[in-house]
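Write out a record, focusing on structure:
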Amino acid sequence: MPPTPRFDSVQCLSPAGLHRMSYTEWGDARNPRVLLCVHGLTRLSRDFDRLARVMAEHYRVVCPDVAGRGRSDWLRDPAYYAVPQYVADMVTLIARLSAQSVHWVGTSMGGLIGLSLAGLADSPISRLVINDVGPRLDAAAVARIGSYVGRPLRFATIEQAVDYASMVAAPFGLRTREEWREITEPTLRRDGDGWVLHYDPKIAVPFGAVTPQAAAAGEAALWKLYDSIGCPTLLTRGAQSDLLTRETAEEMTRRGPRAKLVEFAGVGHAPTFFHDEQIAAVRDFLLQE
C-alpha cells in the first residue's frame, strides 16, 4: 500500500509569543533517518507529497508548514516572517523529532532556511539539497514574486484558482491540468461561498520592506553561511530560472561546500519534484552515502 500522511504540530516561540507549526509526516515514525522538506515563500508542506511517497521507503519524511502558511499559526507580529525565525522554528521541530541529524530538501525560501541552518556550527543537517535559490537573488525575479505575494485574492471555484496558479506559477513547468490541480487544491481554504489562499497576507510585509542596502547585507551574510557549510550539498536549478542565475549557481559549485549542480530543462523557478527525473536526482544524492 502507498504510504499515507500523518499530521501533527509543534509549539514554537517568537519574540511576539508562542505559535504552533504544523507538519505533514510520512513513513515509519520510529525510523532514525529523518528527511525534512521545506517549501517556498507562498507554498506549503503538501508540495512534497510525490517526493515524500518515494522517500518514505528510506526515511521518516517531515514536511512543515512554515509559520503563516497552511495549517500553521499566523504570527502576531509580521516582522518575524523572516529566515532567522524560521531557522529557530526548525531547530524546535528537529528537537521534537528527537533527531540527532537530518537530511534537508529546501525549495526557494526553504532552501535559504536550510542554507542558514547548515552554515551554523554544530548544524544537525548532514546532507543538503538547495532547490533553485542561493545567496544572491536576481532583483527582477524578486520584484516579480513581490508583485503577487499578499494580494487579497478570492476565487469563486477551485478551477478558477487552478487557472490563476497555472498563470503566476507557470515557471514550475508542470505538464498537465491535473498536475496544476494537484498542486493548487491544498493551497486553498474555504471562505464562505468562495476560496482564498492558505497563507497570511502579511508575509509580504518584511518581504516588501527590503531596501537595497539591506539586500546587500543579507547577501553577504548568506554567502558567509554558505561558505561555512561542511556537509555534502546538491544544488538543483530550473534551467530557465530567473531567481537563481546560472552565474550564481556556478559560483556555488566553486566555493563553500562546492555544491553539485543539476539543472532541469523546461523549468524556471522552481522545480517541483513532481516528475521522475527530478525525484531521481534528489533520491540518488541523498541515498549515495
The chain has ten helices and ten strands. The longest helix spans residues 212-228. The first strand starts at residue 6 and ends at 14. Residues 87 and 113 are 6 Å apart (CA to CA).
